[in-house]
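Box 3.1 A note on notation
Throughout this textbook, protein chains are presented in two layers. The first layer is the amino acid sequence; the second is a C-alpha cell string describing backbone geometry. Keep the layers aligned when reading.
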Amino acid sequence: MGAMHAHELEWIHRLQDALRSPWMDRIFLGWNYIDSLGFLLLVLVLVWYLVDRRIGIRLAYILMLSSVVNVFLKYFFGLPRPCQIDPSVSVICSAAPGFPSGAAQTAIILAVVIILECRKRLYWYLGLVFAFLLCFSRIYLGLHYFTDILGGLASGGLLLLIYWKVFPIMEKQWKIAILLFPLLLLIIGQSSALFFFWSSIGIAIGLLLNEKFKIDTKGSWRKRSLQALTVLIGLTLFALMFYKGNSSLKWLFGLGAGLWLSHLGAWSVQKLTRSR
C-alpha cells in the first residue's frame, strides 16, 4: 500500500471513530442504493417523462457512457479499495477495484446536469448537497479513498464536457449518432459493455420508432405521470424476469428496458387511452 493510501486509511479510521454508529451505518447504507442501476433508471424515467424528454435522452446516453468508462478505468488502474486493505473500515465492500469512484462520477454528472438544465438555484444547491452526501457516504462506508473520489469527480467532469459540448452537435445528426454509440461502448468496454450495448440498441430502436409512431410526451401532467408509472412497472417486470439471478439474460433485459423506456411504455399508454 502506498504512503498516500496509508494516510488516507488513517483519515477514514478517524472519520469512523468520530461518526460511526449503528444508525449512521443504516443511513449511509441507504445512500448506497443511489449508486445502483435501479435508482438511475428511476431518475431517467422521471426526467424523461415528467421533466423534459431531451434531457432524459441526453442523461440516458451520458450515464451509459459513464458506466462503461468507469469500469474501463477501474481495471486499467487496478487500485484496491480501503475495505479490501483493512476490513475493519468496511461497512460494506466490493471486489472490484476502487479508482476512480463510480459514485463520485455519477454524483458530479447529476449535480452539474441539474445546474445546466435548471434555472432555479434551489435545485442547484440540492444537487450539490446530493453530490456531497453521495461522495461522503463512499468514504464513510470504507468503499473509497479520498483520491478515488477526486478521480471520479475528474472523470465525471470530462464526461460532462461531452454532455455540454458534443451532444448538441450529435443531436443534429441524431439518427447516425444513436447507431454509432453502441459501437463506441463496445470499443471502450468490450465484454463489460455488453449490457449497455444492448440497452443503447433498445433506446435507438425506440427513438426511431417514435419517428413513425409519434408519442405525446408533452401532454397533461396526469398523462405523463401515467406514462412514467407504466414505464417504471415495465422496467421492474423486465428486471425480475431477465436480470436477477440469471446473468446470461441480462442482455435481454438491457434491450427490452431500452426499448420500453424510449418507446413501448409510452406507446402502450397512448394506445390504451385513445381506445377509450
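The mean pLDDT is 91. The chain is about 80% helix and 0% strand.
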